[in-house]
């Protein structure tokens, strides 16, 4: 299991490096305004995916060990097609309200946003299936193919074709999603022919019931993260959005630690019925994620403003302030990520929904007070407070369910022995 975490972590490190390369190219050659526009388009895609993921989302990880591939694919693809038709109709209706329409969707980007949503949903189905089968290595390779294709195409568009708009990023992402989807299909279809299928009606109901809690939670969680963005667009300019987006991207890049651990955790818990083992793994993973996240953030926070101005451009001089204000929340976010995967993995995603609703309440109160007064600094403080509230609620629920005490959050000798044992097993010095 620890080897899977390291493999996933290595993949996430590659992702961070490609994101850094993307960030540098975007900020230096597109500018803060176009970078902000690209971030808004990405946020639109994130919201649109929520409707699709009601059936064809992360819940597939939970159902993959329990259902046939043919059944999951048939239900998911029908749902994807249905939801995309609804979105297409909705976008056409919004054309009659251009002022509101272009506030939420950058002008001239609607078709691209819809196409990227569709292709990414197909790619995500493949990723979730392999994760549900505990084929973490396959998951990681598809992810690497996606991100390396993306950064390569973006470089070509900027330097060879001199495309200096937000579309340089979005076109490159579309290419990455498309190639990874095609390769994923090549790996999936041979296995589907051998498995057969399950009753569609009962499977549909189970997936909808599970997915409802998961995606309501995702919707509220996305609002938690992105409501500040739309308020910034109202009270500030696109340059400020670009600076804020870059600051959150750098800060949240540290989340590769908890994301890597959480993916392996979710896959493992979805395949076990042992409640004690699930809680012990979660607690151990949470301590590891929080500690490593804190150490990584400490390094980033010590970097001077001049470093970020040199790395990005003079337009991004305020990025260090954003990072410093968000960082405390990112530490709590790492713990939240582990706990969220725990509740999803044991089939109780409702607690993630409740946490997200609490977080949204904090976001609404803090954002409407702080953003008009403090701008991007207010947005950063709001984000940090929201992540803190998410973790506190989920920790209280976890403690009540498992009887865990708060002092058990402090790493002890057995935790270090566990890590060292896993390391020895990986390097081949301990075969047991």
Could you explain how this protein is built, in words?
It is a single chain. The chain has one domain (2-427). It has 17 helices and no strands. It has helices at 2-29, 31-56, 59-63, 69-94, 98-104, 110-132, 136-160, 167-195, 200-235, 238-253, 256-269, 275-301, 305-311, 319-345, 350-374, 376-402, 413-427. Helix 1 (2-29) packs antiparallel against helix 10, helix 1 (2-29) crosses helix 11 and helix 9 packs antiparallel against helix 16 (376-402).
Helix and strand topology:
Elements (H helix, E strand, L loop, with lengths): L1 H28 L1 H26 L2 H5 L5 H26 L3 H7 L5 H23 L3 H25 L6 H29 L4 H36 L2 H16 L2 H14 L5 H27 L3 H7 L7 H27 L4 H25 L1 H27 L10 H15 L5
Gap between N and C termini: 14 Å
Instruction: Report the mean per-residue pLDDT as an integer.
Output: 81
Can you count the beta strands?
0
Helical stretch count?
17
Q: Sketch the topology as an H/E string, one letter per element.
A: HHHHHHHHHHHHHHHHH
Taking pLDDT < 50 over at least 5 consecutive residues as the criterion, the unreliable ranges are none
Q: Biggest β-sheet: count, sense, barrel?
A: none
Rounded to the nearest angstrom, the radius of gyration is 21 Å
**Class by helix and strand content?**
mainly alpha
As for the number of domains, it is 1
Q: Tell the overall outline.
A: globular
Q: Into which percentage range does the β-strand content fall?
A: under 5%
Helix share of residues?
A: over 70%
């Amino acid at each position: 299991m620890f080897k899977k975490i390291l493999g996933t972590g290595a993949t996430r490190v590659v992702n961070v490096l490609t994101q850094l390369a993307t960030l540098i190219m975007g900020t230096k050659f597109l500018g803060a305004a176009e970078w902000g526009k690209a971030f808004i388009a990405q946020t639109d895609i994130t919201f649109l995916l929520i409707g699709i993921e009601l059936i064809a989302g992360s819940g597939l990880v939970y159902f993959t060990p329990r259902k046939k591939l043919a059944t999951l694919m048939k239900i998911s693809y029908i749902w994807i097609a249905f939801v995309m038709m609804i979105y297409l109709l909705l976008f056409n209706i919004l054309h009659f309200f251009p002022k509101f329409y272009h506030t939420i969707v950058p002008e001239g980007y609607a078709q691209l946003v819809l196409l990227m949503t569709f292709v990414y949903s197909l790619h995500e189905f493949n990723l979730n299936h392999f994760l549900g089968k505990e084929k973490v290595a396959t998951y990681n390779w598809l992810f690497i193919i996606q991100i390396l294709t993306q950064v390569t195409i973006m470089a070509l568009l900027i330097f060879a074709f001199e495309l200096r708009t937000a579309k340089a990023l979005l076109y490159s992402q579309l290419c990455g999603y498309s190639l990874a989807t095609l390769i994923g299909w090549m790996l999936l279809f041979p296995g589907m022919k051998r498995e057969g299928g399950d009753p569609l009606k009962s499977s549909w109901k189970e997936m909808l019931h599970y997915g409802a809690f998961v995606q309501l939670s995702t919707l509220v969680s996305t609002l938690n993260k992105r409501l500040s963005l739309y308020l910034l667009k109202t009270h500030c300019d696109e340059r400020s959005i670009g600076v804020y987006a870059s600051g959150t991207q750098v800060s949240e890049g540290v989340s590769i630690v908890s994301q890597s651990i959480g993916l392996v955790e979710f896959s493992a818990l979805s395949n076990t019925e042992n409640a004690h083992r699930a809680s012990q793994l979660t607690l151990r993973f949470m301590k590891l994620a929080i500690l490593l996240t804190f150490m990584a953030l400490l390094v980033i926070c010590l970097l001077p403003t001049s470093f970020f101005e040199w790395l990005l451009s003079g337009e991004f001089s305020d990025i260090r302030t954003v990072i410093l204000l968000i960082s405390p929340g990112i530490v709590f976010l790492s713990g939240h990520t582990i706990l969220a995967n725990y509740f999803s993995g044991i089939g109780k995603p409702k607690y993630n929904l409740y946490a997200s609703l609490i977080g949204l309440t904090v976001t609404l109160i803090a954002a409407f007070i702080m953003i008009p007064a403090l701008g991007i600094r207010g947005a950063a403080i709001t984000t940090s407070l929201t992540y803190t509230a998410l973790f506190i609620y989920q920790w209280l629920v976890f403690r009540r369910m498992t009887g865990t005490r708060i002092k058990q959050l402090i790493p002890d000798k057995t935790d270090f022995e566990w890590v060292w044992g896993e390391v020895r097993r990986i390097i081949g010095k301990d075969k047991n």
